[in-house]
Structure formats: structure tokens, C-alpha cells
Amino acid sequence: MSLPPIPKAELHLHIEGTLEPELAFALAARNGVELPYASQDELRAAYSFADLQSFLDLYYALMAVLRTEDDFADLADAYLARAQAQGVRHAEIFFDSQAHTARGVEIGTVIEGLTRALDAAPSKYGISTRLIMCFLRDESAESALATFEAARPHLHRIAAVGLDSAEVGNPPSKFREVYALAREAGLKCVAHAGEEGPPAYVWEALDVLGVDRIDHGVRAMEDDALVARLAVDQVPLTLCPLSNVRLRVIDRLADHPLRSMLDAGLLVTVNSDDPAYFGGYADDNFAAVRDALGLDAETLRILARNSFRAAFLDDETRELYLKEVDAHGQPAA
Ligand SMILES: Nc1ncnc2[nH]cnc12
Ligand SMILES: [Zn+2]
Questions:
Q1: Residue 131 β-bridge partners
Q2: Is the separation of the CB atoms in 72 and 114 below 8 Å?
Q3: DSSP string, 3-65
Q4: Is 195 among the residues known to form the active site?
Q5: Where do the annotations place Zn(2+) binding (predicted)?
Q6: How far apart are CA 199 and CA 44, in angstroms?
Q7: What per-residue confidence (pLDDT) applies to 305?
Q8: Which domains does the chain have, with CATH numbers?
Q9: How far apart are CA 220 and CA 198, in angstroms?
Q10: What's this model's pTM, rounded to 2 decimal places?
Q11: What is the number of the ligand closest to the CA of 59?
Q12: CA-based, 20 to 30 A from 161: which of 130, 134, 265, 312?
């Protein structure tokens, strides 16, 4: 009998990136939205990306089907069901508020819909969750500030802020002010940096925004002083291996720097980013790096432990999850 997937936390997951073609077509029919694809297969055939921007174009276009609280609840519920099957015990979930408010969907609709599914997740799927509101970095700093103010009545639902979308030309320092407000409000802070952008963006995320984690950060490996800083401070990096191949950050999975990052003493985790688009959920990413990089069971256990070490959990819950990882694959006591 094969072992169930190792228990893990997923820390880099865009809920809009879990929209599978089947659900996209179902929501399109429910909401009377016309999709520019004749079938699910035709839509899937469009999932071939030259870079981050070519993915983002499709990712934002498909969001047109998400309109009501029920839509967001159904989207999150479908993700949680898949995550459970992949051994995910805790999920910290991004959402792109501005991508919805720009289409006339209110922020409260998004947050209430998502939290309905998230609130049910512990009893329904045995998964604890956090919500992370991302600012779109290719929108203005003023738009991020307005988004944060619009979210104020909902901040009890939000654990952290993040920064995503088109990286190059949109450095973290552009968002200094809104991150200061978020921290003042008691939120944790993360930011995508060093995916397509240079190591300088990772430095800015650390020193200007004061982030608690870096999302991606693969390009940090180009800067030895930055690697030393990340190692000394044990700043978690949320890697997304299958995403990096699909968005051509690297050519082949075998070229992924994950192993050198571990060897450099970095606190790296493995995540799925936008699994509906990139060919795999959390455990699929674990299996892919295991096979491509020849990782042994102990290294996979370190990655699973790292995911809980890097999560926004209280110490007691973190310890419980770490015990689950250690017990995985051991004979019952
Ligand atoms: N991989 C990614 N990088 C930046 N923004 C994103 N939004 C959704 N997926 C993203
Ligand atoms: Zn991402």
C-alpha cells in the first residue's frame, strides 16, 4: 500500500489560480458570461506561456466568471478538496482584490465568499487556513492604498498582505506606504520578489517593506550577500517549482535551484502558485522535485517541516503539525 502524501502547509497559492476549466465553464453558465473558448479542451490548449505576463493575461481574463459570494465560496471549496487529497493541513491563500473590484465585484463579496469556505475547512477537510490580500504591483501605489482602506472593515478576516502580478518595472519600494499601514494594523507581510525581477527587488522587499516571507525568490541565488542575509535571518522563501518551469523562469525542473538553496541554509518551502494552470497541486510539486532533483525522503521531510516553520501559526499548533510530519511513514506507536 502506498503512503498517503506527507502533511504539509501550502503558503503560496493564488485562489484565482485554482480555477479549473470545468468550474470556469460551470460559473460562466451560471452567470451568463460568455467565454472566448468553445470548450474546456480549447481553454486548456491555451495554457502555454512564454513568460509571467502571458500567463497573467489569461489568468485575469478568466476571472470574469467570478461574480457572486457563492462563486468565491465554490472556488475556495474546490481548492480545499483538492488540497486535502494532497496532504495539505494548513493553507495560506492569496486573493487579488483589485482584479475583482475593477470588474465591479465588491471587496466584501470576495472576502465573505472566500471566508465561508475557509471557515468550513477545519471540520470539512481538516485544513486550517489564513487569507492574504495581495496588491497588484502593476497598479498604482494609490490604488493599493485605496484597496487597503476598502478592506479595513474586513481586516479581522485577513492575516497578511502580499504583492503580486507583473514584477519587472514594479519594485517593492513603490508600496512602502501601504505596507507600513498594514504592519501598523497588525498584519503580517509577504511579497513576490525575485521571480522574474532582480535580486535588488528581494533586498527592497526585506529592507523597505519589512516582509516576513519572500514569495519565489529564486533569483536571490544570483547575489551571494543576499543569500547570506536570507540564511542568517532564516527568511522563508515560498518556491513554486512547476510554476517556474511553466512561466520559463527556468528551462527544466532539473535546473531548479531548490537543492542549492537548501545547501545554502535557506528556509525554502514547496508550493503550487496557480495549480489549475501549471500542471499540479502541492504534493504534485513535491513529487516533481523529488523526481527531477532526486530528493530523498529525509529532504522531503525537511521541506514539509519548513512549510510549518514558515507558516503564520501559533507555536502550539505549529508543534502539533510538526509532530504529524515526524510521525509520517513511521510505524504506529
Ligand atoms: N506567479 C505569479 N507571479 C506574480 N503574480 C501572480 N499572480 C498569480 N500568479 C502569479
Ligand atoms: Zn505567486
A1: 93
A2: yes
A3: PPPPPEEEEEEEGGGG--HHHHHHHHHHHTPPPS-SSHHHHHHT---SSHHHHHHHHHHHGGG
A4: yes
A5: 12, 14, 192, 273
A6: 33
A7: 98
A8: 8-19+72-311 (3.20.20.140)
A9: 8
A10: 0.98
A11: 1
A12: 265
